[in-house]
């Protein structure tokens, strides 16, 4: 038996001996040059998996291969592109959060040419109606062609949208199964509180507050919405009792969480009476249930936010899934003659999607198959513009947008891995849409049924292990947040760099009109270059390492020029401030001297 060592008297650890020079261990300890190249590329923001594009000048016929960024939004695919996308989203949130003016101006008045085209379209519509009444179908066909040409002219003239829906029996994108449009009752549930409804004003900015000292300020808010509890959980997010944890409800809530968020903003706008704007991100909690962080322009009472969250719900009117009639080992089979899925034993066709919905409509006591609600935890607080708290909140909102949903919280223990597997297995059996193959497990043929359906293997994003039910958009930004799209924000960043470097226009044809040019060197009026994807085995496409080194060198020179331009701009602003301060100082001396002369001579009126 070995005697225990007293605390504090343990022997010092023996340092590991250095590997013998020239040995395999010594060689493996050396860093790889390829990894160092990718690290430097990530440091300079160079895409590590660029797309080789061949650009052909349509005027001269010159062809060259140019590397374009892949534009990935996930770090596991391309870290530099994902970080660039994250900074772009942060700039978008920052620009629209604390605005004090409306981001989108009203539409311009229509021109006389546009009004004339609309009037001509109205005349054609009147003539078509008269031809239909008179059963002159040959004239109807001619008028339809004339209407199509007029609508093309209306779009070319610069008007948005359609004047009216197109004529015809059905569009190409309509459902194959004819029938009436299904309507559900809009009466609120008895177990949900009522909300006041006000007429929504045409404003998106918040309220202005006045301090006791007379200063005014316009704060905004940060909001977090979570789903309900499915059972008690531990600090690591795993359930205390996995057998009693409601994984089925957790899977259905995750699939329909985007619809619940849409309902919340609709109810909040109707309750508050103004067009509330938001920008946020959906991400999983440690218990793997989705929740959302939002930046809200303006302020809303916290009691109102909690009341609206408690009164918001989304009902899923789908066929019942209480009984799973088939398993993955015993599935329905496809019948070519009947063009339908049939029972493997009786060969009877399964219930069609239309028949299943008709049964719900005919049942007066029918209930929705699932109801999604928020949990009681609603976190909201105010944020002042231009503070460190605002920047910290923006970074928090966009913290996980460069990661897969399943990678936001790493499973490090067996309990966490088993919890993730249970939720994923339930998601594999949960229908995601009306066309999901999983409906065959419950004896219902999905919409637009075909023979290639594989229950339990639906390709929808909600069924994937790396999404965990969050299959929709993770970035949620309202239409009038900043008045710009991501392409507009990219253009603003590019224009800022060019203005700082003094190269805002191209020296070619674009320079004559004074317009900004894109990366292809062409203006919006004229396409000068043709682009096509180059193959990796093309002789003019070099190795990836050579292309990365050229991009790193180019990006390093750009960074040097940009830093030098910033230093010049800062030096120029400091010199201008010093000049203005000196001029103001001399002006005060001159004014004081002239004031003494005026007083000595009887005042300035005599000099005038």
UniProtKB/TrEMBL annotation:
Residues 571-582 have a biased composition (Polar residues). Residues 1-24, 157-202, 566-608 are annotated as: Disordered. InterPro entries: RepSA. Residues 188-202, 585-608 have a biased composition (Basic and acidic residues). It comes from the Bacteria. This is Replication initiation protein.
């Amino acid at each position: 038996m070995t005697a225990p060592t007293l605390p504090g008297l343990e022997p010092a650890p023996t340092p590991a001996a250095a590997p013998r020079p020239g040995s395999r261990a010594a060689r493996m300890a050396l860093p790889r040059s390829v990894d160092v190249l990718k690290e430097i590329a990530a440091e300079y923001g160079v895409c590590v998996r660029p797309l080789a594009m061949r650009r052909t000048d349509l005027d001269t016929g010159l062809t060259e291969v140019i590397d374009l960024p892949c534009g990935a939004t996930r770090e596991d695919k391309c870290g530099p592109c994902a970080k660039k996308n994250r900074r772009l989203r942060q700039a978008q949130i920052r620009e629209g959060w604390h605005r004090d003016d409306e981001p989108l101006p009203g539409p311009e008045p229509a021109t006389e040419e546009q009004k004339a085209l609309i009037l001509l379209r109205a005349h054609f519509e009147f003539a078509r109606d008269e031809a239909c009444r008179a059963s002159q179908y040959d004239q109807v066909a001619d008028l339809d062609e004339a209407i199509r040409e007029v609508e093309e002219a209306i779009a070319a003239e610069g008007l948005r949208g359609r004047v009216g829906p197109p004529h015809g029996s059905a569009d190409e994108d309509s459902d194959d199964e004819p029938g009436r449009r299904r309507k559900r009752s809009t009466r609120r549930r008895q177990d949900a509180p009522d909300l006041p409804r006000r007429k929504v004003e045409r404003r998106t900015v918040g309220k202005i507050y006045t301090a006791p000292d007379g200063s005014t300020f316009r704060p905004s808010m940060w909001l977090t919405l979570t789903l309900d509890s499915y059972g008690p959980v531990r600090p690591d997010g795993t359930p205390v009792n996995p057998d009693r944890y409601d994984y089925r409800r957790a899977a259905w809530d995750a699939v329909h969480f985007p619809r619940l968020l849409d309902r919340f903003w609709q109810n909040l706008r109707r309750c508050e009476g103004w067009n509330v704007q938001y920008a946020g991100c959906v991400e999983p909690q440690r218990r793997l249930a989705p929740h959302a962080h939002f930046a809200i322009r303006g302020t809303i009472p916290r009691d109102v936010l909690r009341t609206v969250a408690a009164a918001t719900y989304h009902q899923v009117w789908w066929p019942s899934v209480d009984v799973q009639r088939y398993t993955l080992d015993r599935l329905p089979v496809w019948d070519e003659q009947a063009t339908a899925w049939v029972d493997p034993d009786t060969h009877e066709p399964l219930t069609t999607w239309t028949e299943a919905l008709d049964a719900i409509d005919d049942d007066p006591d029918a209930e929705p198959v699932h109801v999604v609600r928020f949990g009681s935890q609603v976190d909201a607080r105010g944020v002042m513009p231009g503070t460190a708290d605002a920047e910290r909140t923006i970074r928090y909102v966009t913290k996980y947008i460069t990661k897969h949903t399943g990678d936001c919280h790493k499973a490090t223990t067996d309990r966490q891995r088993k919890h993730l597997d249970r939720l994923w297995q339930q998601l594999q059996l949960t229908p995601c849409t009306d066309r999901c193959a999983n409906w065959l497990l419950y004896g219902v043929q999905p919409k637009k049924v075909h023979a290639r359906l594989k229950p339990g293997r639906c390709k929808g994003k909600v069924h994937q292990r790396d999404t965990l039910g969050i299959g929709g958009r993770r970035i949620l930004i309202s239409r009038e947040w900043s008045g710009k799209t991501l392409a507009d924000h990219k253009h603003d960043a590019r224009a800022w760099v060019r203005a700082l470097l003094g190269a805002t226009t191209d020296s070619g044809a674009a320079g004559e009109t004074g317009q900004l040019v894109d990366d292809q060197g062409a203006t919006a009026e004229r396409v000068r270059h043709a682009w096509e994807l180059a193959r990796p085995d093309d002789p003019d496409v070099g190795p990836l390492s050579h292309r990365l080194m050229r991009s790193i060198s180019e990006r390093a020179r750009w960074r040097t020029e940009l830093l030098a331009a910033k230093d010049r701009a800062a030096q120029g602003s400091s010199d201008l401030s010093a000049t203005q301060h000196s001029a103001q100082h001399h002006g005060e001396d001159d004014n004081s001297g002239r004031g003494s002369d005026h007083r000595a001579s009887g005042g300035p009126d005599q000099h005038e």
